[in-house]
Amino acid sequence: MVKYSLLFYFLLTSVVVALGQAKNTSEEVVITSEKKITQVRTSKSGELLVNVSPKDAVKFKTTGFVHYSDFGAKGDGKTDDIDAIAATHAFANQNKLPVKADKGATYYIGGKERAAIIQTDTDFGKASFLIDDTEVENRNASVFLISSRQQPFNPKGITSLKKNQEKINTSLPQTCLVMVTDSTVRRYIRYGLNQNNGAPQTDIFVVDEKGNVDTNTPIIWNFDQITEISALPMDTTTLTITGGRFTTIANQEDSKYTYYSRNIAIRRSNVLVDSLEHRITGEGEQGAPYGGFINIRDCSSVKVQNTILTGHKTYRTIGRAGKPVSMGSYDLSVNRALNVSFVNCSQTNDINDRTYWGILGSNYCKNLLYDSCILSRFDAHMGVANATIRNSTLGHMGINAIGTGTFIVENSTIRGRSVVNLRSDYGSTWQGEFIIRDCIFVPNGGKPSSASLISGHYTGQHDFGYTCHMPERITIENLRIEDSNHPEDYQGPAIFANFNTEMTDESYQEQFPYVKTKEVVLKNVTIASGKDLRLSDNPVMFKDVKVVETGDRK
Fold it and tell me: Is the model's pTM score more than 0.85?
């Protein structure tokens, strides 16, 4: 008898996009090779008991892959196939075999707490998967978990770190993801209807075997002390997930912040997801929100391409401030992850339909990319270091972010209320530079509105746990502003929205001063309304901003 133990964990934070409390979930799959038929059953304690006949084992290894039907999956859309699916992957993982879904199958997955652990290439093909969330045992349990064979460890001798430190005082067995936390320091102390007391300071970066920090994933905080540190060796081969037509039958729970994580969780570096489709059915008058059908965390170099997603219906609840709020509900979630790209991705519902929440939420990330995407939203809640949006169209929720480094928006159409919105609940902060070029801005999706290119809100009276900055330099080149449909009193588009309506003269005092933009460079900005581009409705706040114009303005 071979006992195949699978231990995996979910580091799920309680913030808006990462959903639920931290929980360790242990699954055991016992694989035997007795001279009986190949079958899958469950023990009284919940263990998955898999017997693979010696004849079948030889056949599977000779064939070079396994199907879900090899382990008893019916694929009839009615029988719960999760045990068979999990067993298939367990055997495939043990023998390093790819997995293929059966052609024409429809796999029903009920509410049982059972995750299929994926550690080998998987081709879902054109098979369908019905994930029924109407009655689940554990809303935090993923359906599929793409995990690493590598094991995390605690590197020794690292007691502090400095921002932008180039090398750490340790050696590693190979290039690793290093994750650090100082629980004595609070950052991202949220303001507004979902106010909170912040989160422990954390960071994630890549370090090679000699201790050199990858310059593309710099350390962004000073860590005077470290209360938790771990290193995870990075997988060097690409694990590929292709195809699959997934449908979530939505939960009908009360509309509260009880996030559902019945998803595909990616916890391995170097993963490609290609040509997957996800749809949603059964959304009613109430429902709990979702934390991302594709949920990426604690990893690097993940690419999702040629994928079709679906925005979730927006439900309302009472927020921490005791007032009604709309709950974020996501089909894409990226948390504490590096070098994550979405290429040629779109969604089934209208990107301008405000009844559906924006499709992406992210926290603690570095180097996020949209390329050739048509999606309702890009969002970085608790910070991103460097982001790029190119060749894309953004819908009604537009681009929302705070963070550091360089934010590039190029050759894209933005249909939100501004080109970039600096999230006010986290201090409207970006310490770095914005580059906006070769873009079209359609304010408020073409509805009458007073357009501003950069929006946000900052009173200077709240401590967010860090000094708040506006981009030091903003470069806007070859921008077309489609503002012909505007209110009667429209004065023309502004570079900056009115970030603080109370700052009307020099007597206003910011308890926590805002570091404002030094320079805006404009080149070839054309405006459909024929009106001039203004600085802001708040000239007092932005009086020291230098605006440099080159090229034509029409």
Answer: yes
